[in-house]
Design the sequence.
């Protein structure tokens, strides 16, 4: 029995490995973008800290200004008291003038001593009043300066409030943009995770189908091997039976030869007894010795006996010749069958070797595929962990306090950061689209590989 050779035309895995390399490159690009986003977030946090420091400085300034206002209000109270004292001094001056008039009109002689003392006291009071007037003028100047400072502080507070409102509005807009970006990234990450889960499921299904197909091919090959072994056993049994028959035929032929030899010896002995041992002529014919003596009649009789012997020997020869021909034919048939069996056995052995080699190749390829799948799973898990950590490390802008910053350089820097964030989000979307296309291509190639494996298995079954 001869088996047809099976050709395994498996597709190469180089394209699949190239796609895996492209996928890893895209993931590295994604990691770089994530690192850029992290750096931008850190810069934003640093700018927020600077704004908080500036706000604290503004608060300290406002507290100092409030203290100055309180001091100015206290000074105003003191100035008002001084004004009241000034009015009292003016009233005293008027009263002193009146007293002076009264003193002039009174007797100068009787009250000279008292008037001098009174004049001295009045002069002291006048000096005191002059000092009070100086203090009042200084207090008026201080009040004017305090009002000016109060107006300046009110203007600065209004400006600071307006800037704080503008900064709050900007922060609210930035927070809204950040929330939109976060939502977009979270949706894209969820889609990528779902796609990765689908890919893992498809890989597992492909592996299960490949294992099933491999087991089916293994079972079919084992069945074929068992059939071939059974056929070989049958052929061996047939050969053994033929050899047994051949040995039995040889034994029978040897037994017939021995019986014929015994008959020939008995015939020779009988002829020796009948003819005697006189003047004898010896004739040899076909290795049989016949002794002849006496008259021509006896010779004729002896020749008759000789002819009978020849006929018996010839008859035995003619009987033995077909047996020899049959034995030769049987030998030729057995040799032909043995050569055919050897050829079939050689073909079976070569076919088994080829099948074993192909089986080993398929096992190696399956091992390579399993290793590649394990590496892909590890990469997917690492990337998912990195994405999750990045999502966790994104600062929550709603929890941070609102900050005010009046410097135009920081505003320009923020505008640049917003533009960079928009570009990075667009790059992330493009990268996600490329990844989706690449995954679709890998899925289609996996389906093509599965179809090729099924066709190969069908060929093996045939």
Sequence:
């Amino acid at each position: 029995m001869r088996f047809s050779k099976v050709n395994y035309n498996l597709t190469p895995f180089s394209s699949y490995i190239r796609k895996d390399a492209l996928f890893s490159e895209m993931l590295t690009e994604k990691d770089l973008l994530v690192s850029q986003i992290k750096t931008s977030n850190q810069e934003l946090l640093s700018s927020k800290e600077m704004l908080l420091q500036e706000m604290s400085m503004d608060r300290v300034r406002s507290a100092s200004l409030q203290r100055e206002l309180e001091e100015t209000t206290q000074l105003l109270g003191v100035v008002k008291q001084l004004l009241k004292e000034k009015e009292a001094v003016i009233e005293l001056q008027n009263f002193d003038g009146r007293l002076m008039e009264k003193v002039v009109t009174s007797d100068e002689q009787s009250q000279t001593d008292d008037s001098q003392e009174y004049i001295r006291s009045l002069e002291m009071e006048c000096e005191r009043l002059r000092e009070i007037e100086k203090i009042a003028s200084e207090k008026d100047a201080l009040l004017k300066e305090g009002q000016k400072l109060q107006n300046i502080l009110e203007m600065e507070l209004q400006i600071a409030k307006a800037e704080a409102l503008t900064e709050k509005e900007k922060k609210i807009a930035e927070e809204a943009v950040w929330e939109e970006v976060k939502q977009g990234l979270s949706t894209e990450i969820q889609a990528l995770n779902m796609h990765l889960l689908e890919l893992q499921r498809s890989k597992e299904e492909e592996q299960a189908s490949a294992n099933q197909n491999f087991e089916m091919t293994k079972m079919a090959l084992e069945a074929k091997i068992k059939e071939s072994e059974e056929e070989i056993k049958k052929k061996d049994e047939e050969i053994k039976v033929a050899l047994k028959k051949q040995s039995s035929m040889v034994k029978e032929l040897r037994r017939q030869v021995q019986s014929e030899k015994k008959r020939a010896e008995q015939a020779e002995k009988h002829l020796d007894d009948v003819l005697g041992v006189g003047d004898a002529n010896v004739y040899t014919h076909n290795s049989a010795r016949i002794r002849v003596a006496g008259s021509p009649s006896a010779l004729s009789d002896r020749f008759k006996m000789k002819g009978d012997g020849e006929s018996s020997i010839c008859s035995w020869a003619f009987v033995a010749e077909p047996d020899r021909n049959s034995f030769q034919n049987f030998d030729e048939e057995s040799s032909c069958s043995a050569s055919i069996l050897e050829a079939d056995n050689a073909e079976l052995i070569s076919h088994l070797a080829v099948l074993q080699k192909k089986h080993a190749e398929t096992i190696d390829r399956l091992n390579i595929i399993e290793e590649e799948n394990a590496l892909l799973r590890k990469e997917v898990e690492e990337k998912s962990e990195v994405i999750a950590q990045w999502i966790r490390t994104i600062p929550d802008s709603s929890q941070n306090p609102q900050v005010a910053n009046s410097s135009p350089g920081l505003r320009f820097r923020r505008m640049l950061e917003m533009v960079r964030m928009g570009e990075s989000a667009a790059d992330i979307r493009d990268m996600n689209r490329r990844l989706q296309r690449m995954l679709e291509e890998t899925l289609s190639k996996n389906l093509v590989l599965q179809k090729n494996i099924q066709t190969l298995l069908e060929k093996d079954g045939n």
